[in-house]
Here is the input.
Amino acid sequence: RFVRLPKPKLVRLDLGALAASVLEFSGGELSLARIEVELKLEPALPEVGADESQLRQALLNLVRNAKEAMERGGRLRVEVARSGDGQVRLVLADSGPGIPPENLGNIFEPFFSTKAKGTGLGLALVQQIVSEHGGRIEVDCPPEGGTRVTILLPMAARAATPAGGQAPVGGGGSATATFSFPVP
Here is the structure.
């Protein structure tokens, strides 16, 4: 499947709504793993050109990687905002142990895995999907701990056809909305 990933069929997509949908879908398993989730969305985000199915798969892979890294529970923070350079930025930050520096340079290599049952294709697939969407992905481990994954995707061209044939939604403002999915 990794080798035969179809060319993405780009439509206008609300990346914040997609992130919220992926977190809602994953909510049960995250809750069982005692992971508190915080979603922070900038209002009136510009749309990105994306293949919803492929981008959903990429986000699900990242959320599951974060869950597996936090074996004893923790916190997953997801933020979607404008990047200021014609892009929309999605950041997933977990409170896990982080990635050892000696492994950081290999995480996107196909078949590289530190998991006993891992295939090593998850992050390679995520990188391929992001790249096929004209974006880029960065991973770092901040000094305070955990792992932070940043995805930058270009804003949709104004002439692009909106998903579902709907007119683009405009608006302004810089306030943020925060949604939390607490652990029971």
